[in-house]
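During the first year of the project, the team set up a workflow for recording each protein of interest as an amino acid sequence followed immediately by a discrete structure-token representation. This format lets reviewers and collaborators read both layers of information side by side without switching files. As required by the reporting guidelines, we include two representative entries from the current panel. The first entry is reproduced here exactly as it appears in our internal archive.
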Amino acid sequence: MKAALLRRPNLIEENPLSIEEVPIPAIGSRQVLVKVAACGVCRSNLHMIEGDWAAMGLPAKSPIVPGHEIVGRVARLGDDCGGFKEGDRVGIQPLWSTCGACEFCLTGREQICRSRQITGETIDGGYAEYVVANANHLYQVPDNLKDSEAAPLFCPGITAYSAVKKAELRVGKRVAIFGIGGVGHMVIQIARLYGAEVIAVARSKQHLELASELGASVVVDISKGDREGWLKRIGPVDSCIVFAPSTELAQLAMTATKPGGTTVIGVSAEVGQLPFVDEKRIVGSVIGSRQDMKEVLGLASAGKIKPIYQEFKRETSNKILNMLNTGQIRARAVRVP
């Protein structure tokens, strides 16, 4: 099969991914071979490819095939894969496997299992014609969702859903969302399902326009240098959710959160000094559990949330990631091999 391989992290401008012929992977017990129909392109892929996460030991092997939000069809089943059959349309999220026995797995927090494997980071991912999935972490895709529409649900969708749950929103609450990209545009939609008023904070015109289209009541153009003027105009908010990879914006979110409120951080950033006397909470958030994933698929199938995506059929993975890096992707890019 053809696959986009990362042999050594490098700047995306140097085109570090190479298209190569590699063997179709073998499968073991409780594993499924999936023929890839669509794979979302995530900024996390870019961070790993450029070496930003080397200190965390990622990528965990070399070479590796990136890509962790995948929709395809079952091509082959290993032993003990009840519940699936050849031809089923399925999805794979970043959480490729967990131990199932630790304190985190047993308390509904399996996404922070210390033995977890991550699709496209520790295990080969979806920038290929075929990918191996763990049957315990494989999902049936609803029939009324297109391949490219469903793929972003398996990272932006579940990541946004998990973050919004941690923000403890409800009718009458106000939430500021920092970063309106692949994940942020899903956060807006899910926050509105809770009845919260949404303030969107972004830098680019296309993201500000997208936020308005999705129902944000206030959009803030942070590129104009008015770092805190908008906050004086609208006042502090009950919660902030940060998916802009920026220490400046993470610290601004802390300032914008009212006493007793919650700031949810889904990116690498330094939040600065914690104003403990205001009893503000900072909560980290990463992907989500299998139950979260099933709930996200149900919301999408019911038409309550909808990924905004651009489909790329002929462009190379290097080119798509370059476009993401230079702000040319409105919400989510989806790679169609």
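The second entry, processed by the same pipeline in the following quarter, appears below.
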Amino acid sequence: MFPTEQVRKVKSELNLVNDPTVYSITSSSWATLHNYGNITLAEDGLLAVHLQLDTNNSNGAFCRVKIGGSLYAWGVKHLYSAGVYTKYGFLVWLAAGTYAILVEGCLSANTLNLKNLQCGFAKLTDSVGLANVTYSNSVALTVAARKTAIGDLKEAVFAINLFGSTPSGQTNFENIGETLTNGVSVTVDAQQVNASERNQDVDSKGNASAKYYVPLTVGVQHTVAVSKRNANTVVNISIIACPWILTVKEQKHRPVTFNFPQGSTLYLTLEPLFVDAGTNVVTGLVRAVSFGDICDYYHVASGTGILADSYTFQTVNFTEVETYVYGLGGCVSIVGVDIRPI
């Protein structure tokens, strides 16, 4: 038997904006880099956004993306690169409807360039979410437990996307133990968590953004809350909870508890979702004394693009190890197992 499951529903995906044009500004105050017009989602789900930025301003430049009439979803301080475009991306949950996509920027001197913006509707099974809103109260979400082709769901990544702004001041997202100017922190089930990626507002441009990707048990309700040191700071929040979204290595997760006979071959396909920064699969566990991945893991696979990996649990007993996946910007797309007869 060879049960498989395609958990990324590519047939339902839509590439809504794909514009290679270069747009530039020289403004020292916030100005429109480009208005990409409206997109329409026929159902609730994931909006993946990817873009590239370049500047010849040695003091850096600022960029932010607005989705809908007033809500910003992402912002960055882009450092001097002079002709070298840096790739960025983010993921938000949106309700069905029509949304304008607008990119704004500013810089102290010279030019900020934007190109290759893409945004599209993506669909992964076992996903629930909170549509991009202005934060007011804590949010509780549950990813339902179920059996997959390779076993029971174990963990889902809560992908928390935040954009913060403070009138006439900096905004900074805090990690555990930090106290920052106009700080914003995130707790999950009443415990503060560290950011997987954050873009701080070091030059008082009034906005910052962060991604908090946290693996949590499925079948249980989890509560996300945001705290602000300055009551005037406004935070926009979107949450996607899904077993198949990937996070950073330090927060790698186990989507499934395997349920198949020893000696079977596990198949996992991983691929980019909003950034092609590389995806990874590792099988093993950190030892009592760790000498790094080469000794902690019996099997390691990594790569950009579509990573089609397989591993046969021949001598290694799958009940004695864990198989983790990671790679911020990517996802698991296909799972399967070639079952060895008992």
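For the second entry, the following points were noted during internal review. The longest strand covers residues 31-41. The mean pLDDT is 95. Both points are flagged for discussion at the upcoming steering committee meeting.
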